[in-house]
Amino acid sequence: MKVLSIVETAYRATVEEQDDTILWLNHMLKNNGLDVGILLRGTAGNYAVKGQDASGLSHPPQIDEDLRALMAKGAPVYYVREDVAERGIQEANLLEGVQPISRRDLPSLFEEYRLVWHW
Amino acid sequence: MGTLTIALMDPPYETETTTTALRIVDSALRKGHSVNVFAYEGAVNLTMAEQAPHANPVKGTSVEEEAHPTTKDWVAALFRSAQGRLSWVNCGLCVDERGAGKWIEGPVRGSPKEFAEWVKSSDATLVIPTN
Question: What was the ipTM of the complex prediction?
Answer without folding.
Answer: 0.91
